């Protein structure tokens, strides 16, 4: 590589290039929304200047769950069993509190087989970014209905879907999530800004990404298709993520047309109102909005809810600053005197 | 109330420090406290004693029995009869009487109606429980509980348990709760004094103090397992409540704050997390084990059924975790509060596909402690799930056991590579590469900052570098290496314990909590002219010693608490050249094994075998 080319390579705050955030080549179908999500995760982390080694990826089973292999090759990853991804992340989060966890799941993984874990990992507020790559269909098993498939959806070999879909953002909200958002794979700028905000959020951040399955569920009238999404997406805000070090030039944003949300690490999220004034710190507003969207079949996207958590689960367990998985043996085995006391009490 | 006068019964020989007493109460009435006080007082007098709680799956109001066996010879297994009944439950009274042999004794609350024609060979002592409770002037809300303390005093006096030992036991139970100690002590004394003044002893059972039992403690297997794990440096435990495993984790919760503060920072070093189900308990433990924490969970059969898929994941991704299975009676919900050894084959092959596991089999409370820390070392050293099979009898009942011994070796974290270690591999490190030829690869864990550290862990087919692979040769090599890794463990797992008898030509094999019954049976068989050598297996897969034992005996009986003889079946596979030398003897029903049953079974089979 000659010097001229080297200089052209884009570098982030910590001197890494986008290549440092890449994964293995994707084996998903060309055009799959999941590839877009993988790309935007890489872009968001590159732009944030996150050290790839400080991230760990978790997933279950399904097309979505294969995708952590396609970004951040320099991060640890664990692809477990169907629906149980949140449990792997829960156990791992105590090992090294400095590591940021990303869970990638799908609608089969989270809305059906793993619904219990989905809600309980939220209840525990495990510090992780929980992304659902929601395409309303089982892809890897070749096109069955999922619990987020639209009512009345018709699929080859399946007939007509006679059950209503679950809304994972609503489920997340009522389970106590303090960061709930929805993105659409056809709207990458919004997705990337949401990812960045999710990464700096302290606690679980749930993002339901409508991610079309080009092979099994991309008919124009299907709610999770590109066509339907592009025609029907109604974002509630125009989102701009401003990193903590960067100065805000307020004149860029017309007074009264945006909301400013301060994030955990000092970054700021500017939310420009689109067609209604929406308060993302109000849970009631979020529930109302999502209920209305569900009933009227709108593809509403954006940041629905954000709230600062009192304390993380790591704080609740009062762990030290040093990673637990590096404590030397003498600090995890009580001494002989402690055992003698135990024995004496049982005599 | 008149008592059958049975002077001739006094002619039966006196039985000092050798009897079985069952206290019949209803659960939720505070009887557990009373029974433990009696039990601890006997322990304090230096008399070998075992206490077994036979209880219902219920909170309050159903029959429960507490069986105390006193044996100067140190036989602590269950016996199938009672010498003494303490009858507090009218509902079971008539049935309870049938377990008494000639000369049996009944202490009964005098509000219980006696049968019209009571057996003349029994001795009845009525106890004016309610009157005594009134006299002791205990708070009204505690009266029901105090009824049970009243019998402690009466029974204690008649049997010769000294007041000093009762006081010791009360103090041990109530600790520094001064008011509770005071009112309970008052009740015990009231009963004691009443018995001294009013009961003329006509039975033949009594206790005499013995020299203190040196270096012995009294506790249950679940507490021991919890302590063993905490001394083993466990850093993460996820669990879901289930009888009879809950008290294992509850003991951890109790001891964790005191034992596991980081001596440097004062912060916690062990996370105990109750989660939504057993699928999550296993998943969380695997996530923690994968990320470099010493991780465990504890459950029983139904929970283990739910953990099965995750166990396969841990096995194939070579993630260290420890799983305690405190066995209860299955299948299905089964008998949740009764004991069994029915999970052995299930656990041995837990999971689908080509799979097998390492199982540790503690046979005493002390071994629950020892295997508690050893299991964590083995899991991390061999990077595989380690199962420890206890059971309800061992886990939830109080046993006299030798003092816990401090681990005799440093904590073994296995082949973990940190940043500086990886530099030695010059970028050629592969997660599943068998560099040392022992089948155990090297692993890195989350948080390692070396750019060569990260890898992608997957339950799908993977090559030596952890990359996805469907290659047939690679798959076969991977699965065979894991097997080799596990089979290399046979000789390092806890060795079986042999108790030999002179001239024995036949053997008996047991495992787990049946040990006291089999020790006693071995003596009974010797007295019956059939000396046997007894081998207690403490781990699977079996080691050379087990093969040699079976080969060296004319015939070997495998005795266990399950229907189909699960250990026997496994041994027939593993010691296949001697399979015709093995016979299975099994007992099911949910109660601990008795020496009498074991003896009769072996004798009957031996008669059959010898024509």
Q: Tell me the span between the first and last alpha carbons of chain A.
A: 75 Å
Counted by DSSP, the helix tally of chain A is: 12
Compressed to H and E, one letter per element, the order of chain A equals HHEHEHEHHEEEEEHEHEHEEEEHEHH
Arithmetic mean of pLDDT of chain A: 92
CATH superfamily of chain A: Thiamin diphosphate (ThDP)-binding fold, Pyr/PP domains
Outline the biggest β-sheet of chain B. 7 strands, mixed
Can you summarize the main beta sheet of chain A? 8 strands, mixed
Q: How many discrete domains of chain A? A: 1
Largest interface: A-B, 59 and 76 residues
How far the N terminus sits from the C terminus of chain B, by CA atoms, comes to 56 Å
Poorly predicted runs of chain A are: none
**Alpha-beta content class of chain B:** alpha/beta
Identify the CATH homologous superfamily of the largest domain in chain B. Answer: Pyruvate-ferredoxin oxidoreductase, PFOR, domain III
Largest sheet: spatial strand order of chain B: 11-10-12-13-15-14-21
The CATH architecture of chain A is 3-Layer(aba) Sandwich
Widest sheet, order of strands of chain A: 2-1-3-4-10-9-15-11
What does this structure look like?
The complex is a heterodimer of chains A (347) and B (611). Chain A is α/β, with parallel strands linked by helices and 347 residues long. Chain A has a single domain, classed as Thiamin diphosphate (ThDP)-binding fold, Pyr/PP domains (Rossmann fold, 3-Layer(aba) Sandwich). Chain A is built from twelve helices and 15 strands. In chain A, a hairpin with a 3-residue loop joins strand 7 (154-155) and strand 8 (159-160). The model of chain A has no long low-confidence stretch (mean pLDDT 92). Chain B is an alpha/beta fold and 611 residues long. Chain B folds into four domains: 7-206, Pyruvate-ferredoxin Oxidoreductase, domain 3 (3-Layer(aba) Sandwich), CATH 3.40.920.10; 219-402, Rossmann fold; 415-493, no CATH class; 497-609, Rossmann fold (3-Layer(aba) Sandwich). Chain B is built from 19 helices and 23 strands. In chain B, helix 5 runs antiparallel to helix 6 (178-198) and helix 9 packs parallel to helix 10 (301-317). The longest helix of chain B has 21 residues, at 178-198. Chain B is globular, with a radius of gyration of 27 Å. Chain B starts with 14 loop residues before the first strand and ends with a helix. The relative contact order of chain B is 0.09. The interface between A and B is large, with 59 and 76 residues.
